Amino acid sequence: MKEIGGLDFKGKDIISINDFSRQEIDFILEKAAFIEHLDYDTKSTLLKGRIMASLFFEPSTRTRDSFTTAMTRLGGTIIGFDSEKATSIKKGETVWDTGLQKQQEYQS
Questions:
Q1: Which residues, in sequence order, are bridge partners of residue 7?
Q2: Mean pLDDT across the chain, nearest whole number?
Q3: Can you give the residue ranges of every domain in the chain?
Q4: What is the per-residue pLDDT for 42?
Q5: Mean pLDDT in residue range 16-21
Q6: What distance in Å separates the CA atoms of residue 10 and residue 23, rounded to the nearest whole number?
Q7: How confident is the model at residue 1 (pLDDT cuts 50, 70, 90)?
Q8: pTM, whole model, 2 decimals?
Q9: DSSP bridge pairs for 4
């Protein structure tokens, strides 16, 4: 991902709000306010060419559907799975390895 608004989010792992600086939080909230007012009757191209990996290891229908809807409305693409059954976890693959595999598949 390229630098956005003077901030570089490439490779940033996000676990909690504490992983962001004040400047990053302000930037994200400004972008959220802009996105909130988009006309969803017309498909946006804001995230055209971007892919979001949606890796759910347990059922979470509302969260998964909310993320999918948002990404689609902004012109992006979704890949991933919605249960552990769609992974090789039971064969001993770690969650980390599963994530790396998905990343490699979709970067090629």
A1: 4
A2: 79
A3: 1-37, 43-107
A4: 72
A5: 88
A6: 16
A7: very low
A8: 0.60
A9: 7
